[in-house]
Amino acid sequence: MSRILLVEEGRDAASVLLDELHRAGHEVDHIDDGAVALHRILTSPPALTLLDVQLPHVNGLQILEKIRARSDHPIIMLTALAHEADRLRGFELGADDYVCKPFSPREVVVRIHTVLRRYAQRRIVARPSVPITFGAVRGCAILDGHYLPLTRRESLLLRALSQEPGRVLTRSKLLEAAFPEALDVNERVVDTHIKNLRKKLATVSTEHDWIRSVYGVGFAWESQARQDA
Q: How many CB atoms lie within 10 A of CB 48?
């Protein structure tokens, strides 16, 4: 179905994932060295990269940072480090998803399909699924033909989220977008503004979630209505 690059130093984890990815119909290349993987992604990018954090020569987070400086290539991070700070760092750098070891190989395959679907949606720029424009008047936004009266913070949050549909933005990144002048605002204030923003978005369509929550991390803009609507 897709060409996947698996960057994983652990032989056992790599073997299990390779078998599952092949069963799912994917073509898979396996690299266990960070420097080699970075060169491959930059010169011959696959459809998606599964990227381990702990790698020799260049670690996964360093690779992610270098790739994001040039491309929005889909990347799912793999790590044995289950600490929240590590996951947040990955999302801050632009990871599309994060899977902590030990993991279910079948779950990884499902996450791959989800990320690839969202990436395809982001690439459709000629005909956006949900047109959204921001007026010259502060707090004015038009979503799918509907006028939305927004506060300044809500407008800044909506702009940040809608510019990268499908990508998870951490609370700290959203805080920077909505409170650029504030130094001591708690990240949880983002949740309050997102809640109010969702109520206003619901007036456009109650069958569209618009903003997806990612527990413990942040939020993502969904440009497509949910499939069961």
A: 24
